[in-house]
Amino acid sequence: MKKAIQFSFITLFAICSSVVSAQSMDEDQFYSENEPKVRPFRIGGKLGFPNLIGGNVEYVTPLLGDKLAVSADYSTISTDWIVPEEEEGYESSGDKLDFSYIEGGLNYYLFRPGSGLYVGASYGNIKIEGQMVRYSTESDRTEPGTGDIDFANGSFNLKLGAKLGGLFYFRPEVGYRFSALPESYDMEVVFDDGYTETQSYTFDTESSPQNLLYKGLIANIGLGFAF
């Protein structure tokens, strides 16, 4: 299953790149004499892994013939946004998880200034915070405890991507995180009487597509505009 999902992302990337690249090869004829060919500022959104869903900004510097760019990604997701506790008919378990991802790095465009195929190197940090309630214990306590999660995972990343288009662009990316997420996390559970113990919280590493977060795979699709 894992290999099939990875193959699907790579195949999608290859198809999109070949189709749009064929169109973008002739885009020079659409530029007027007064219009710059490189729009250095880019802003857009990304959907995929490890970003899940978030924003992206990029600036193409004049270095190396307008081929070196700096890039930053940011995502944040809270369980409160997905199912509000006050929704009628919904009984909250009380569990809360907040996910955030921040990444910064460099992209080098291989063939054309600020456009087309590029390789990227970056550093990204995944942070998960939350509170898990109603945790039982193996001791003789009858009341459940509350576990606090404060987990972070930083990783160096390598990526291959393509910025395809002019004013409006499409951006597929694939790559690898060298520090994948662990499958479990040791958290401290606190009980009402003040007793604490360490328990292991296991992340959902089986359900698709979020299981890709635990395999180190980078695969996302971005849309945006440049100016």
UniProtKB/TrEMBL annotation:
Report the leader peptide range.
1-22
Q: In the UniProt record, does the keyword Signal occur?
A: yes
Kindly state which keywords UniProt assigns to this record, in alphabetical order: Signal
- Note whether Signal occurs among the keywords: yes
Name of the protein in its database record:
Outer membrane protein beta-barrel domain-containing protein
